[in-house]
Amino acid sequence: MNRRRTLLFSLTLLALLAFPGCFGRFAMTGAVQKFNLELTTDQWGRELTFVGLYIIPVYPIATFGDLFVVNSIEFWNGENPMTGESAITLAGPAAAPSS
User: Where are the alpha helices (DSSP H) in 1-99?
Assistant: First the structure.
């Protein structure tokens, strides 16, 4: 039990250090969405494509890859590896677009 608790603590600490509050562009998920939008102009065709890509599971894998890989690389390097754009940065704790 103690060994299991230590392992869980170590993995949690590693995750907190490896993935620190990075919010990126979600380029991989955006690429899947772009594919879905360009596939057909029919709203029912898009919905069926979305459901199919979610069941297969293309959307969940893309989101997971963005969340744990691409966005983390973007956070640490300052550049998104898929788009080449600079990382999203905020000027303050709750910076919102000015209107």
Answer: 2-18, 27-39, 43-55, 58-65, 71-77
Smallest Cα–Cα separation from 59: which of 84, 28, 82, 14? 28
pLDDT in tens, 3-50: 888 888 888 777 666 655 667 778 889 999 999 999 999 999 999 999
Q: What is the dihedral of CA 72, 25, 89, 95, to 10 degrees?
A: -130
- Whether residue 44 is contained in a domain is answered as yes
Instruction: Report if residue 30 sits inside a domain.
Output: no
Give domain status of residue 63, yes or no. Answer: yes
User: How many domains, in total, are found in the chain?
Assistant: 1
Question: Residue 84 in 3-state DSSP?
Answer: coil
For the whole model, what pTM was predicted? 0.64
Q: What is the domain extent for residue 46?
A: 38-78
CA-CA distance, 70 to 38, in Å (whole number)?
23
